[in-house]
Predict the structure.
Amino acid sequence: MPLLLLYLALAADPAITGSANQARSENFEVYGASATQDARQVALLCERWRDKLQTYWLQKPRDAWTPRCQVVVHSTKQSYLAAVGRGGEMTRGSSWIEFKEKAVSKRKIDLLGVEDLGLTALAHEMTHVIFADLFQGRQPPRWADEGAAMLADTFEKQQLHQRDLEKAVASRYDFRVSELFALEQYPAQHRVPGFYGQSVSVAAFLARRDDPARFVKFIERVLDHGHDRALRDVYGIHDALALETEWRAHRNGGRGYHGVRLTLDARQPATALAD
């Protein structure tokens, strides 16, 4: 964002205070360790994405976060990996949320800010934080947590997910929906790309089938009663097999990928991808 536009945006939102290196807003504390990012701009972006994601999944924003979510923008990959640990080599963002007696004690998002690319992971990681907050520390099913977060990925990454799903189906590395639902950990390495592609496709199919807020209700029911009962209670779908029949018919009917991409651009609706 050009400096003049940044100042105008900040003037319109005086709740954002601080400097280029450290800023605070109602829900975020941003530490801009990257020379390419202004912490105030990042705080503004965080607030906009929080509002967008909560409105999409919950119909309206929730109360302010206490404590605020810490967002650290790292200027080097070494700094980023030191913060997120092993397994972060292929990522540009990571999120962490801690609970104490069912109340949130810490929220944190780490971003790799090199060459302005790190902020592309912000909405994905914030979705994880929002879902963890909603379910009070109970881990949502892996497919649902990742699937919902990927709906906020960039258009380019969405296209990669689409190709990965198509390749998995062609090579028969895709999952039965009941198998996808049962995964508690990530699958074998050769099936990971298909897992991501199928997870976001199934999550988007359910989010589009009814109001997206019903997807959150569905996950709540899953955590209490399992997938099949949750499907019946929330969507009127008998079980995972019935969902698989609907989902595969949707894909095979020439209707493209999943058609959902969350964006801050008001000119592009949530169903911005080809339908």
Remarks:
- DSSP finds eleven helices and six strands in the chain.
- The longest helix spans residues 39-58.
- The chain has a mean pLDDT of 86.
